[in-house]
Amino acid sequence: MYRWTEKFNTVEENSHLRHLNTFGENPAACAVALKNIEIMERENLFNRSTELDDRLQKELLMVFKQHHCPL
Q: Which UniProt keywords apply (predicted)?
Protein backbone atom coordinates (compact mmCIF):
# COMPACT_ATOMS: atom_id res chain seq x y z
CA MET A 1 0.00 0.00 0.00
CA TYR A 2 1.36 3.40 -1.02
CA ARG A 3 1.37 6.00 1.73
CA TRP A 4 1.69 9.76 1.24
CA THR A 5 4.52 9.80 3.79
CA GLU A 6 6.73 7.91 1.34
CA LYS A 7 6.90 11.05 -0.81
CA PHE A 8 8.68 12.84 2.03
CA ASN A 9 11.23 10.07 2.62
CA THR A 10 13.58 11.09 -0.16
CA VAL A 11 17.00 12.64 -0.64
CA GLU A 12 16.06 14.66 -3.71
CA GLU A 13 17.20 18.26 -3.86
CA ASN A 14 14.61 20.59 -2.29
CA SER A 15 12.48 17.65 -1.11
CA HIS A 16 12.06 19.47 2.19
CA LEU A 17 9.85 21.99 0.34
CA ARG A 18 7.29 19.48 -0.89
CA HIS A 19 4.86 20.25 1.89
CA LEU A 20 4.47 23.79 0.51
CA ASN A 21 2.70 22.55 -2.60
CA THR A 22 -1.02 23.25 -2.17
CA PHE A 23 -2.04 21.20 -5.20
CA GLY A 24 -0.25 17.85 -5.02
CA GLU A 25 -1.71 15.52 -2.42
CA ASN A 26 -0.83 17.81 0.47
CA PRO A 27 -2.47 16.26 3.54
CA ALA A 28 -3.08 19.65 5.16
CA ALA A 29 -4.72 21.02 2.01
CA CYS A 30 -6.89 17.90 1.75
CA ALA A 31 -7.98 18.24 5.39
CA VAL A 32 -8.87 21.89 4.87
CA ALA A 33 -10.82 21.09 1.69
CA LEU A 34 -12.79 18.35 3.45
CA LYS A 35 -13.59 20.64 6.38
CA ASN A 36 -14.69 23.36 3.96
CA ILE A 37 -17.07 20.96 2.20
CA GLU A 38 -18.40 19.83 5.59
CA ILE A 39 -19.18 23.44 6.58
CA MET A 40 -20.78 24.20 3.23
CA GLU A 41 -23.05 21.16 3.56
CA ARG A 42 -23.87 21.81 7.24
CA GLU A 43 -24.83 25.43 6.57
CA ASN A 44 -26.71 24.46 3.40
CA LEU A 45 -24.75 27.06 1.41
CA PHE A 46 -25.32 25.37 -1.93
CA ASN A 47 -29.09 25.72 -1.66
CA ARG A 48 -28.97 29.11 0.07
CA SER A 49 -26.67 30.72 -2.49
CA THR A 50 -29.53 32.22 -4.54
CA GLU A 51 -31.19 33.65 -1.43
CA LEU A 52 -27.89 35.04 -0.17
CA ASP A 53 -27.10 36.51 -3.60
CA ASP A 54 -30.42 38.38 -3.73
CA ARG A 55 -29.93 39.68 -0.20
CA LEU A 56 -26.38 40.82 -0.91
CA GLN A 57 -27.43 42.66 -4.07
CA LYS A 58 -30.25 44.49 -2.28
CA GLU A 59 -28.03 45.53 0.62
CA LEU A 60 -25.22 46.68 -1.67
CA LEU A 61 -27.65 48.78 -3.72
CA MET A 62 -28.85 50.46 -0.52
CA VAL A 63 -25.27 51.26 0.51
CA PHE A 64 -24.42 52.58 -2.95
CA LYS A 65 -27.45 54.86 -2.93
CA GLN A 66 -26.68 56.14 0.58
CA HIS A 67 -23.15 57.07 -0.49
CA HIS A 68 -24.13 58.36 -3.94
CA CYS A 69 -21.98 55.77 -5.71
CA PRO A 70 -22.42 55.41 -9.47
CA LEU A 71 -23.81 52.06 -10.54
A: Aminotransferase, Transferase
Look at residue 47 and tell me if it is in a domain. Answer: yes
pLDDT of 54-68, one tens digit each? Answer: 889 999 999 999 998
Spatial neighbors of 52 by CB under 8 A, at least 6 apart, are: 45
Q: Quick check: is 12 in a domain? A: no
Query: How many domains, in total, are found in the chain?
Result: 1
Its pTM stands at: 0.43
Residue 65, Cβ density class (10 Å: 0-12 exposed, 13-18 middle, ≥19 buried): exposed
Residue 34 is given by DSSP the state H
Listed as own residue / partner, the contacts of 60-67 with beta carbons closer than 8 Å and 24 or more positions apart are: none
Instruction: Classify 10 as helix, strand or coil.
Output: coil
Q: Is residue 14 part of a domain?
A: no
